[in-house]
Amino acid sequence: MDHITLTINGQEIKATRGMTVLEAAQSADIYVPTLCHYPDLEPYGGCRLCIVEIDKMRGLPTACTTPATDGMVVTTESDAINSVRRASLELILSTHPCDCLECHRRERCGPYDICLRHVAVTDRCVVCPSNNNCELQEVVDYIGVHELRIPRDTAPRTIDNSNPFFDLDRNRCILCARCVRACQEITGVGAIDMAYRGYGMKVATFGDVPLLDSICRSCGECMVRCPVGAITPKEPAVPEREVKTVCTYCGVGCSMYLGVKDDKIVSVRGDEEGPANQGRLCVKGRFGIAEFVNSSERLTTPLIRKDGRLVEASWDEALALVADKLGKYRGDEVAVISSAKSTTEDNYVMQKLARVVLGTNNVDHCARL
Amino acid sequence: MTAAKPDNGNKQRTIFICQGTGCISGKSLEITEALKKAVAEHGLPGVKVDFTGCHGFCEQGPVAIVEPEGIFYACVSVADVPEIVESHLRDGKPVERLFYKDPVSDEAIPYHKDIKFYNMQQRIILRNCGRLNPERIEDYIATGGYESLKKCLKEMTPEQVIEEVKRSGLRGRGGAGFPTGMKWEFCRNAPGDQKYMICNADEGDPGAFMDRSTMEGDPHTVLEGMTIAAYAMGSSEGYIYIRAEYPLAVKRVRLALKQSEEKGFLGDNIMGSDFSLHIHVKEGAGAFVCGEETALMASIEGKRGMPRSRPPFPATSGLWGKPSNINNVKSLATVPVIIAKGADWYASTGTEKSKGTCVFALTGKIANSGLIEVPMGIPLRKIIYEIGGGIPGSKKFKAVQTGGPSGGCLPESYLDQPVDYESLAAAGSMMGSGGMVVMDEETCMVDIARYFLSFTQAESCGKCVPCRIGTKQMLDILERICRGEGQPEDIDLLQQLGENIKAGSLCQLGQTAPNPVLTTLRYFRDEYEAHINEKRCPALSCVKLISFYILPDKCQGCGICLRNCPAECIAGDKRMVHVIDQEKCVRCGTCLEVCPERFGAVVKVSAEKVDVPDEPIPVTAEKPAASAT
Ligand SMILES: Cc1cc2nc3c(=O)[nH]c(=O)nc-3n(C[C@H](O)[C@H](O)[C@H](O)COP(=O)(O)O)c2cc1C
Ligand code: SF4
Ligand code: SF4
Ligand code: SF4
Ligand code: FES
Description:
The complex is a heterodimer of chains A (369) and B (629). Chain A contains nine helices and 16 strands. A four-stranded mixed β-sheet of chain A has the order 2-1-4-3, with helices on one face. A three-stranded antiparallel β-sheet of chain A has the order 5-6-9. Chain A is elongated and about 85 Å long. Chain A has five domains: 75 residues, Ubiquitin-like (UB roll) (Roll); 58 residues, no CATH class; 75 residues, Alpha-Beta Plaits, CATH 3.30.70; 53 residues, ADC-like domains (N-terminal domain of TfIIb, Single Sheet), CATH 2.20.25.90; 63 residues, no CATH class. The radius of gyration of chain B is 28 Å and the shape is globular. The N terminus of chain B is likely disordered. Classes of the chains: A alpha+beta (369), B alpha/beta (629). At the A-B interface, helix 2 of A face helix 17, helix 18 and helix 19 of B. Flavin mononucleotide (FMN) binds next to strand 10 and helix 20 of chain B.
């Protein structure tokens, strides 16, 4: 691979050609505050927090958009950078519920504690589904904003809760466009985009109709990338532990982590290392697993029809019955249909059984139907 | 000055009516039809009726020129047609009452060449505008058109073309002033077999219309310049991005493209060479930000028009990720002249770093408003007082704003500064698109800053934080100050916000949007302080800070004000001193306008209490002599 060397904050760094300055810095564990950047999305350059100084370049370029080049000399902190960076963060905060963000005892407050600063309950970090999992909190803590020099805009903005799985609360949106880029670049759907200009810009569907009436596929890729609490699941939950598994819905084999609490599945997270999906999931995998796994109507044992009624049975009993009945047929008297939800290995074994044991080429599976 | 001499009327004459957008809105199409009809009725075989594109003097429109004498008619209407035809076109006696009147000397000026507005200009870009029929390629060819393209294709290598343009010192007229030849060279040297040549005809600045006029008045110049540029950088595919609000420009450019293709100046194997170029017209939806080059390319690609960070620059990764070059209409219109007359000729006009001419749309409190083309380096004073004819109504000059909505406002002390990229930037303003707005003593500088910022704020694409939110915060503060609710710390806050937005924004829209505020803070800080500390608007313009009073020692009790006041808040009766109810007054100023000048009883003040009675009292003022004024 093609390597380059650059200097960031006086430290010499080896990077790969094609990396941005931000990626080069991150590869060397140098923290640069970001909000609109997301690793698998195209650079955007909207939040202006990652500004740096680069020798031989004018002004304050953004690290997330600037390609790293050999011999580049970069500074990530200086008085000029900090002043402009802080100003941008204050501007973001003027459009986001931020009274808690500025407060030094944020971590210690419960939702119903009496707030000495009179922060409205709905504006408190502690009631936000993304509390403690919010990149804005992280950035505010790093840059350290304890007071806004500008007034906060508290005019209410519209909430879209038409989607059955997640809500879009524009009151918390910081317009980083990660959701929009995810929907266009990752999902290829383009259900949402930035609409309107200037201060009136907002995330909206085509024609500004509710998400449910749009072409949205409810995949939730936007939700995962939202840095704040603007797109959040309808049933947010913090799991006790996570279990790595493969989605059972189809044959793609998306790798995922199921979050478990009180022996129930409460959350689903795409596995970024999963070779088939690289962290991505569709609506079924992301929002459809907990419901069917936790369902009281789910079949957990084989059923055998006895005297016209389906009766629970053991696997041994069920398999013995199937083997016995199949033994009475030969060749093309039988056809085998398997499931696309099974693993490749299971399907391989199934067709082996059909061809070698049952002696038929009548093999098919549901994905073709 | 030469007086217009009548002749025997047998002469061949052509009357050219302006059919630019401005004159068309003044009914120049109807005038043309009426002229044709009248000429036919009178049976004048030697007389032709033709039309041109915009002259740049739209304020005097509809305008017409009668050649070969060069008689210039201003403010022509359909009703004037019989007289023009009978007196001038038939009998050879020009119609004096339609001559242009010099705003300073009030003298009627018959000849186009004697009009100061025109003869102080030096026209390179607009050389053909108003001079030829833009819908006939033959007219353009007759002025030497497409000869430069031929010269490039037959006698020059692309490298030589680039070298010539570099030597001419031509810098981009789209605002930033980047050397054009260098841009072409970057694109030529960028690896890639498909390259795009784009003409930026978006022209989103309010009040600017030079690109439109050029396309409407001389579309072939733009095409020729574009083709030469494409040859120089090795591009076979071109786009002209024109806003859809310019339907006439779109129509004339499309027609010019067709004619040019038919003549073999465009298309495959141009003039028998192995160079081919196909040009497409893309109509923009009219967002100011789509004039920014990366937003423009996103728009052509069908995406939301939002700028993106550079690098990578368009020269390496532009339209559809391919090397692209984008130039303004005026930059391209200059190119054929540079090739025809040579780099040295071009470079002999202008200043050391800014060569050639620049076009301004001169407006505001100025006698002659319109499009002007002047050599770079000309002092502002000359533009305003000589070409522009000064400030009307013997008002005092206060400031001039250059560069469009995000340019700066310069005070009187800058009037002798040369106009070029460097000096305007040093003063906190810019060349920009060439807007030039003149302001007099009645303009409030806080209000004007608020006005310009309200435009840029509304046109911000919304992508980046400083521009989207910062300009809104600044605008809120300015609105407060104009309402008399400013706080002493607002001045510092405006300054800080302005500097941070300039330093932190992604594209030049945000990087320049604070200019009107920062320059007025720099040059007219006292006006801000008066608004904030004394709740006083020195220009007597901010509605919330002014009041109108009727002076008891002047009022004659005529009742005109009472009858006209839309708020019905004036009390009075015959021969009674009238009184304005300050609570109900909406500060529209109607009373001041209608009070007869010889009485002069209404005054406008700010933060000042005038001693007036609470109720109407009998008139005591003496009647002024009826013919006093
Ligand atoms: C907000 C904004 C609006 C712009 N609008 C225009 C425009 O209407 N026309 C134009 O030629 N350039 C415009 N520009 C400048 C272009 O980005 C670009 O610099 C120019 O087209 C390059 O051409 P030139 O080198 O011939 O000047 C604009 C820039 C900004 C930031
Ligand atoms: S859920 Fe998926 S399809 Fe719907 S808006 Fe989000 S990313 Fe787009
Ligand atoms: S909804 Fe979230 S991801 Fe989308 S723009 Fe707003 S903050 Fe960013
Ligand atoms: S500076 Fe303004 S116009 Fe330019 S990218 Fe940022 S928000 Fe958009
Ligand atoms: S992370 Fe670079 S601008 Fe937002």
